[in-house]
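Input.
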Amino acid sequence: MEGCAMRKQLVSGDAPFDSILPEYGRKKLLMYADSFRDLANTFSDIQKEEEMQPVSDRQEYIWKKRLVENRDLMADHLNEMAQIMTRVAEEAYQCIHMSGRKVKQLAHALKEENVLLKEIYLLEKENGHREMNLIMRAGKGTSPAVDEVGNLLSVLLNLRLIPLKSSPVFVGKEWGSYQYIEEPRFHILTGVAKAVKETESVSGDNYSFMEAREGILTAVLSDGMGSGEKACKDSELVIDFIEKFLEAGFRKETAVQMINGALIAGGESQNMSTLDLYQADLYTGVCEFIKIGSAPSYIKRENLVEQISARNLPLGVFYEMDMETVRRRLVDGDYVIMMSDGILDALSQGMGEEMFPEMLGKITLKNPAEMANHILNFCLHQSKGRIRDDMTVMVMGIWESL
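Output.
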């Protein structure tokens, strides 16, 4: 059993970072990335040549403009794929040396819990986050929980470790690889409250919470234009797109641009939809907002409330979007409130949108679900119970992990 059975010699804590991939695999990925960049440049060159050619009539101009936009979108896609490959190829680690005595201590402690240890690896990424990989199996007649093994390792190493979300619940009978990551500094609880437009049976709003990468929580809210089934399908498509692009490794800004291009390519059959995206780094507390045609969001810190808004058009209107990323740093006990346009519509029938931050500042509820329901009920009271548009409230509360 080795403390760090890597292809390179064991290194000390101050050793340089090395590529996770073997040299051959790293070079292959970088070669593929260069190929995608070359293809992107080819699309751009074709576009420049066609832009210089004269246009005879309006119909030809419209067709040519659409073709240029689609090729530009394809070039963006290829460039983003090249960037993803480059990031993977250049991802680096620092192997943290563990003494033979420490490894034996860990193996003995795990054996006491009927877990047999074969190999153990402790790595540190360039961002400072640590990961631990173990090859282990359960002893005869036992099925130890994977998270309990993580708790034991946390005590022995003085490092708070949690299993990956994709990990099995129990340690298996056969030798297998189990991965643990350093527990994020913060954790988030969420709550949602919804109301459907009074003349419809289904809401045109759709939302999602996801963690495409460990320690990065993303909340997305989309409001389809209009109401009913068509609006629901449009906003559902936006949510589905953003989930798939983020899970594939695309940057959120690029994912938004690609979704906008896809909606434009859909033509008149595709309605416009808003997009409200919030992403929080649970290791640092830094969060970012991207708002495309959406209602304002709010950050509540005790009785102080900050409004985050953007005056731009929904997805699917223009190929070139006015997109801005707003960054803030959250602290223990902060809340983020996102909402659809139906909330603003209800407020306009009562106290008005300008008084909404003051109302949020007076809320003393701590549970995000209770807070979301309180906000929705308040807005329904402002509209005297009338629901003229779909209404959705999302609340995310952030706390430091104990």
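DSSP finds nine helices and 16 strands in the chain.
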